[in-house]
Design goal:
The chain has about 500 residues and is of the alpha/beta class. The chain has 2 domains: about 5-215, Rossmann fold (3-Layer(aba) Sandwich), CATH 3.40.50.10260; about 235-495, UDP-N-acetylmuramoyl-L-alanine:D-glutamate ligase. It is built from 17 helices and 20 strands. The protein has helices at about 15-25, 30-50, 65-75, 95-100, 135-145, 195, 255-265, 280-285, 305-315, 330-340, 350-355, 375-385, 385-390, 395-405, 440-455, 460-480, 485-495; strands at about 5-10, 55-60, 80-85, 105-110, 120-125, 150-155, 175-180, 200, 215-220, 240-245, 270-275, 290-295, 295, 300, 320, 345-350, 370, 410, 415-420, 425. Strand 3 (about 80-85), helix 4 and strand 4 (about 105-110) form a beta-alpha-beta unit.
Length: about 500
């Protein structure tokens, strides 16, 4: 399926190659012309990042190196002192042409040559790179990272897989990256995102369209404009009814925040199904939320409450299952029973996810839409691996889980990835460090639960929820500073994010 118009496409290496070939072979744009524009845009970024001082340009043997030669020529023509350092004499094609046009010459790379530089241009490995860098590239990358200079990457930091963000071995740690024609997934997905610094897209003259069919995109602000708003004829039920099920001793805050976030996101009616022995806590805290006491054992829910939840689900539009549930065996069994039998859209979070460790495929039998919101550790348990493996292959891991569960998977992080079973993925631009505090995941569950209740399809609801949640975190940080933010503060900012369609977030 094509990407919705509220995702800004991210082109992987194969898709970018197809676009380059289309521009050259079908449209008659010379490859050397594309390289001139790329290298010039790279040089302009260098001048912005480091307006003064000596510049080193480290060039590999491919087209990435060719871009570097253009960059060096431009900088020299504009009066900058530039040291061009080559890793290979085996040049060909457009890269050789650009080397021959370079005034002032070059010399072979040595780490000593990086001394005293204000900026280093990493033009070693390009978007076609995969795997682990080998020498001489690997040694050059290590030396660049040790140098006390700004690093500006050409198209993608060397050592980063442009298609996935994977990093095996060393990768250049860039202050900024000039990427050509369009953004690449690896610049926005960790760990590659952490290497890219500020990303600037350079227009190199490839028109819109072409043969590429991207499946990954950045979630744009305009997705918020697609969220249904209350109209004059709306009722509390028409605005969406959300059912939240969870809570246990010591974990009453999680379902409370999920319920409150659902209300603040515009749900018209929210009901919390909680342990009977803790009901007074919820009654006291949740003034606008109905509570339904369920059978519990020492403050932990058990399966005797399943029928009550399912009966309530028949009158609700979405179920948020798992916040604060705990890991007692009967509570986990309740989560599995409800996930299997509830016939409404389901958001599964926290211990609702842990209850399905080793049984991820069972969710594929559900008849209604499903959204899973794991962090790396929870996703690792679902996939039977470890969090390190998930962190190293975030895009692959999210897609694999989405395929196995036939569900939308929201892999949380600064680069939150929303993966659909059909392979489409939305990626958050991030930049909301204030969300790195306990309880904000429960807030996200409530936000997405409310959007599911408004009858958005699961992929749409999850992408919109991730955007709204991140913007609320940013607004909160602007108001009180990022270090003091707590989850309740983020909930209070949700209405401000959800303004009328067309308003600026």
């Amino acid at each position: 399926m094509p990407l919705p118009d509220w995702l800004d496409p991210l082109y992987d290496s194969q898709q970018q190659r197809a676009l380059d070939a289309w521009a050259i072979q079908e449209l008659g744009i010379a490859g050397i012309e594309l390289m001139e524009r790329a290298g010039t845009g790279l040089a302009e970024l260098v001048m912005d990042v480091a307006p003064t001082g000596r510049v080193g340009v480290v060039c590999g043997k491919g087209n990435n190196g060719g871009d570097g030669f253009v960059c060096a020529r431009f900088l020299r023509e504009h009066g900058r002192d530039v040291e061009v350092l080559t890793l290979s004499e085996d040049l060909s094609g457009d890269a050789l042409t650009m080397f021959q046009r370079l005034p002032g010459g070059s010399r072979p790379f040595t780490s000593d040559a990086l001394s005293g530089l204000a900026a280093i241009v990493d033009a070693i490995l390009g978007t076609g790179f995969r795997g682990q860098p080998r020498d001489p590239a690997a040694s050059a990358i290590a030396a660049i990272n040790q140098a006390p200079a700004h690093v500006i990457a050409c198209d993608v930091p060397s050592g980063v897989d442009a298609s996935t963000g994977q990093v095996v071995g060393d990768a250049a740690q860039a202050t900024a990256t000039a990427t050509f024609h369009a953004d690449k997934p690896g610049l926005w997905i960790a760990p590659g995102k952490g290497c890219a610094g500020e990303v600037r897209v350079v227009d190199i003259g490839i028109p819109r369209g072409g043969p590429a069919d991207p499946t990954v995109g950045l979630i744009a602000d305009r997705v918020a404009d697609t969220i249904p708003r209350r109209g004059r004829e709306s009722t509390k039920f028409a605005a969406g009814s959300v059912l939240v099920c969870g809570g246990s001793i010591g974990l009453t805050g999680a379902p409370s925040m999920a319920a409150e976030a659902a209300m603040r996101t515009g749900a018209g009616y929210v009901t919390a199904c909680v342990p009977a022995s803790l009901n007074l806590v919820f009654e006291t805290r949740l003034l606008e939320v109905m509570t339904v006491p369920l059978s519990d054992s020492d403050g932990s829910l058990n399966t005797q409450g399943a029928d009550t939840v399912l009966e309530r689900a028949g009158r609700s539009d979405a179920l948020v299952l798992g916040p604060g549930l705990g890991r007692q065996p009967e509570a986990s069994e309740l989560a599995r029973v409800l996930a299997a039998r509830a016939e409404i859209p389901l958001l599964l979070d926290a211990d609702g996810l842990n209850a399905h460790a080793g049984a991820l495929g069972s969710l594929a039998a559900r008849g209604a839409g499903t959204v899973l919101t794991p962090h790396a550790g929870e996703l690792a348990r679902l996939l039977g691996t470890d969090s390190g493996a998930v962190g190293a292959q975030r895009l692959h891991s999210a897609r694999e889980a989405a395929s196995q569960a036939a569900a939308v998977v929201v892999l949380k992080g600064d680069d939150t990835i929303v993966a659909a079973p059909d392979g489409r993925c939305g990626v958050s631009r991030g930049g909301a460090s204030a969300l790195a505090t306990a309880g904000t995941g429960d807030v996200l569950s409530g936000v997405i639960g409310a959007l599911l209740a408004k009858r958005l399809d699961p992929f749409h609801a999850a992408c919109a929820g991730v955007l709204v949640h991140a913007r609320a975190g940013q607004r909160t940080a602007e108001r009180i500073g990022p270090e003091g933010v707590i989850a309740r503060d983020v909930i209070e900012e949700l209405p401000g994010v959800l303004r009328a369609p067309g308003s600026r977030l």
